[in-house]
């Protein structure tokens, strides 16, 4: 059984013991399909809301950010009749704030939320069995394992990827983004007080712009991998993935203990 | 030792009327962004304070800072050089030469120990014991260290002294090094720019003489009064940027209409300087007004950030020169391709497993 299942109180309700754990009404059920599917409540509502808000914010940030660096073709007419870059930048900054506030909320939720909410912020790096599971998952993605394992929350490889791309990646984008925003907010603004040190640390403003843009490409790469793996796992693994982030319920496709 | 004259004494001796003197004080106050009340303060300071001696040394540089400085309009450089500061040593501007000049330098250091301001134009090369820049028969770095030892403060004129500029650009064969990395125990004011704006230079000096303290500096040591905002923040073409009206290429319709130069690589959005407010040559113009983008000359390492005509800077870490979009595009395409291949293999595997399991079921 996975590390995650062992460590989590919810996971003691793994399918072979349907009565264990407090799952709430209707969360442990037999679905009317040929294969028995059981479910566990994994992602709480605030967390799911954060996920989709965050996804929307990132989407807006990437599209607007791309056009801030490489603006759309020139519009003709009077300057006073248009505000194209103005609106694009406004959308970028607004989405940026949503991302940043969402990130702070997500950290708060890792303190008060359930066991799975902690996964994005706490990696059990010291645990050998966790690393073994990372290795196992790598082998699964390299087609070297025939049968995937069951996980209630993220599998360890996914957890590692989430931590690098979402926790560290978002933090990097927030810090560099706020530093760039502080340039427009001017010296003495709270953005400048909190994040202005980033620019001399990196070198100069242009360097921070470049890093921020490279960060955008990292996020694009992450989205490609994330969406692909989520859909693939939904089909090939033994638990639900995509629907779990909508309903919060993780369903399992079989009753096998391992 | 005769008492040192005050600024006012000197100005009167120069034939400057009291009226002109007060006019100068109010102009200086305005140039420094101070309120009208400061005019009297400046006048009082200049009437009572002895002139501050300035030693101006030149390392690896092109003298564009001096060229800019002597074109200052407000205050007129004549006022600054002849009246306000006692420019005791400046090998480019001074009349003396050779041993006479070196004697003047030694004399100034001895006489005003701890009280003079050291203005550095250019920077010292450190490779080969500094042999790439010789002043008076000795490496410039030695002269810099000696003059800095007893200085009250150091002014780093221009991008050379502040950041290294062109002589420190990759691969920097002489190891030209900005002043603050050689002199570490003195307050240093960076006045970057290639060259800095004349009024900024005289403004900084006037502030220091009038108030007898350093101007307020930002995180990187630049005076806040001139380097707090980017060119972009005060650019008169900014409305075209916000509207999304850009020069797509030089000499196009947008260029004729004076649209924003962002797309042809203007570095205004990443450059801290006062060009868009003070402008150049008595406020006549500045690069963007002349139809060319800002090249970011007052920013650290502006020679090594890729083309002046491209929006995205070059990234050298990969051995080849590429910008963020090229690198990101390659990575994203590569990962996208890998995902497609992985998906195809996954589908094949799944089909294989399904066939096997249905075969197993049939056997059973």
TrEMBL record, chain A:
<dbReference type="Pfam" id="PF01292">
    <property type="entry name" value="Ni_hydr_CYTB"/>
</dbReference>
<keyword id="KW-0472">Membrane</keyword>
<keyword id="KW-0812">Transmembrane</keyword>
<dbReference type="InterPro" id="IPR016174">
    <property type="entry name" value="Di-haem_cyt_TM"/>
</dbReference>
<feature type="transmembrane region" description="Helical">
    <location>
        <begin position="49"/>
        <end position="68"/>
    </location>
</feature>
<keyword id="KW-0249">Electron transport</keyword>
<dbReference type="InterPro" id="IPR000516">
    <property type="entry name" value="Ni-dep_Hydgase_cyt-B"/>
</dbReference>
<comment type="similarity">
    <text>Belongs to the HupC/HyaC/HydC family.</text>
</comment>
<keyword id="KW-0813">Transport</keyword>
<feature type="transmembrane region" description="Helical">
    <location>
        <begin position="214"/>
        <end position="231"/>
    </location>
</feature>
<keyword id="KW-0408">Iron</keyword>
<keyword id="KW-0479">Metal-binding</keyword>
<feature type="transmembrane region" description="Helical">
    <location>
        <begin position="157"/>
        <end position="182"/>
    </location>
</feature>
<feature type="transmembrane region" description="Helical">
    <location>
        <begin position="88"/>
        <end position="109"/>
    </location>
</feature>
<feature type="domain" description="Cytochrome b561 bacterial/Ni-hydrogenase">
    <location>
        <begin position="42"/>
        <end position="248"/>
    </location>
</feature>
<dbReference type="InterPro" id="IPR051542">
    <property type="entry name" value="Hydrogenase_cytochrome"/>
</dbReference>
<protein>
    <submittedName>
        <fullName>Ni/Fe-hydrogenase, b-type cytochrome subunit</fullName>
    </submittedName>
</protein>
<keyword id="KW-1133">Transmembrane helix</keyword>
<keyword id="KW-1003">Cell membrane</keyword>
<feature type="region of interest" description="Disordered">
    <location>
        <begin position="1"/>
        <end position="31"/>
    </location>
</feature>
<dbReference type="InterPro" id="IPR011577">
    <property type="entry name" value="Cyt_b561_bac/Ni-Hgenase"/>
</dbReference>
<keyword id="KW-0349">Heme</keyword>
TrEMBL record, chain B:
<keyword id="KW-0004">4Fe-4S</keyword>
<keyword id="KW-1003">Cell membrane</keyword>
<keyword id="KW-0411">Iron-sulfur</keyword>
<keyword id="KW-0472">Membrane</keyword>
<dbReference type="InterPro" id="IPR006137">
    <property type="entry name" value="NADH_UbQ_OxRdtase-like_20kDa"/>
</dbReference>
<dbReference type="Pfam" id="PF14720">
    <property type="entry name" value="NiFe_hyd_SSU_C"/>
</dbReference>
<comment type="similarity">
    <text>Belongs to the [NiFe]/[NiFeSe] hydrogenase small subunit family.</text>
</comment>
<keyword id="KW-0479">Metal-binding</keyword>
<feature type="domain" description="Cytochrome-c3 hydrogenase C-terminal">
    <location>
        <begin position="227"/>
        <end position="307"/>
    </location>
</feature>
<keyword id="KW-0408">Iron</keyword>
<dbReference type="InterPro" id="IPR027394">
    <property type="entry name" value="Cytochrome-c3_hydrogenase_C"/>
</dbReference>
<protein>
    <recommendedName>
        <fullName>hydrogenase (acceptor)</fullName>
        <ecNumber>1.12.99.6</ecNumber>
    </recommendedName>
</protein>
<dbReference type="InterPro" id="IPR037024">
    <property type="entry name" value="NiFe_Hase_small_N_sf"/>
</dbReference>
<dbReference type="InterPro" id="IPR001821">
    <property type="entry name" value="NiFe_hydrogenase_ssu"/>
</dbReference>
<keyword id="KW-0560">Oxidoreductase</keyword>
<dbReference type="InterPro" id="IPR006311">
    <property type="entry name" value="TAT_signal"/>
</dbReference>
<dbReference type="InterPro" id="IPR019546">
    <property type="entry name" value="TAT_signal_bac_arc"/>
</dbReference>
<dbReference type="InterPro" id="IPR037148">
    <property type="entry name" value="NiFe-Hase_small_C_sf"/>
</dbReference>
<keyword id="KW-0003">3Fe-4S</keyword>
<comment type="subunit">
    <text>Heterodimer of a large and a small subunit.</text>
</comment>
<dbReference type="Pfam" id="PF01058">
    <property type="entry name" value="Oxidored_q6"/>
</dbReference>
<keyword id="KW-0732">Signal</keyword>
């Amino acid at each position: 059984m996975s590390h995650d299942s062992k460590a989590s109180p919810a996971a003691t309700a793994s399918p072979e013991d349907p009565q264990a754990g407090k799952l709430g009404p209707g969360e442990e059920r037999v679905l009317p399909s040929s294969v028995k599917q059981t479910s566990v409540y994994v992602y709480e509502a605030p967390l799911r809301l954060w996920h989709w808000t965050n996804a929307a914010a990132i989407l807006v940030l990437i599209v607007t950010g791309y056009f801030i660096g490489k603006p759309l073709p020139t519009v003709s007419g009077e300057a006073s009749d248009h505000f194209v870059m103005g609106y694009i930048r406004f959308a970028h900054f607004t989405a940026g704030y949503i991302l940043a506030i969402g990130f702070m909320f997500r950290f708060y939720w890792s303190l008060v939320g359930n066991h799975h909410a902690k996964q994005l912020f706490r990696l059990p790096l010291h645990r050998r069995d966790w690393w073994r599971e990372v290795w196992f998952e790598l082998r699964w993605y390299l087609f070297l394992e025939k049968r995937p394992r069951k996980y209630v929350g993220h599998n360890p490889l996914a957890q590692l990827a989430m931590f690098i791309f979402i926790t560290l990646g978002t933090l990097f984008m927030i810090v560099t983004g706020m530093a760039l925003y502080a340039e427009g907010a001017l010296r003495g603004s709270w953005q400048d007080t909190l994040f202005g040190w980033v620019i001399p640390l990196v070198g100069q403003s242009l360097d921070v712009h470049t890093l921020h843009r490279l960060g955008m490409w990292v996020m694009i790469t992450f989205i490609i991998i994330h969406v692909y793996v989520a859909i693939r796992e939904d089909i090939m693994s033994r638990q639900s993935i995509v629907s779990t982030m909508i309903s919060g319920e993780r369903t399992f496709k079989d009753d096998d203990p391992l | 030792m005769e008492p040192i004259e005050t600024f006012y004494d000197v100005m009167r001796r120069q034939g400057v009327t009291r009226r002109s003197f007060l006019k100068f004080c109010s102009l200086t106050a305005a140039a420094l962004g101070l309120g009208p009340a400061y005019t009297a303060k400046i006048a009082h300071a200049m009437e009572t304070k002895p002139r501050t001696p300035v030693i101006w040394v030149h390392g690896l540089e092109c003298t564009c800072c001096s060229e800019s400085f002597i074109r200052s309009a407000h205050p007129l450089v004549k006022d600054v050089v002849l009246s306000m500061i006692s420019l005791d040593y400046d090998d480019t501007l001074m009349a003396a030469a050779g041993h006479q000049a070196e004697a003047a330098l030694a004399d100034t250091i001895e006489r005003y120990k701890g009280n003079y301001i050291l203005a550095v134009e250019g920077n010292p090369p450190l490779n080969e014991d500094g042999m790439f820049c010789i002043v008076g028969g000795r490496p410039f770095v030695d002269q810099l260290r000696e003059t800095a030892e007893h200085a009250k403060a150091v002014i780093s004129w221009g991008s050379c002294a502040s950041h290294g500029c062109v002589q420190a650009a990759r691969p920097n064969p002489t190891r030209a090094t900005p002043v603050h990395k050689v002199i570490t125990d003195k307050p240093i004011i960076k006045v970057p720019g290639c060259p800095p704006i004349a009024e900024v230079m005289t403004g900084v000096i006037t502030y220091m003489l009038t108030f007898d303290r350093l101007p307020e500096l930002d995180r990187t040591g630049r005076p806040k009064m001139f380097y707090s905002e980017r060119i972009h923040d005060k650019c008169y073409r900014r409305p075209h940027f916000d509207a999304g009206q850009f020069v797509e290429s030089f000499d196009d319709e947008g260029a004729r209409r004076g649209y924003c130069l962002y797309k042809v690589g203007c570095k205004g959005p990443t450059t801290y300087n006062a060009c868009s407010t003070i402008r150049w040559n008595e406020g006549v113009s500045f690069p963007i007004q002349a139809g060319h983008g800002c090249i970011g000359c007052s920013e650290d390492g502006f020679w090594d950030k890729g083309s002046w005509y491209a929006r995205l800077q070059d990234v050298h870490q990969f051995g080849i020169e590429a910008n963020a979009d090229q690198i990101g595009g390659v990575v994203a395409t590569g990962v996208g391709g890998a995902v497609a291949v992985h998906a195809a293999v996954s589908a094949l595997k799944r089909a294989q497993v399904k066939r096997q399991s249905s075969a197993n079921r049939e056997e059973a």
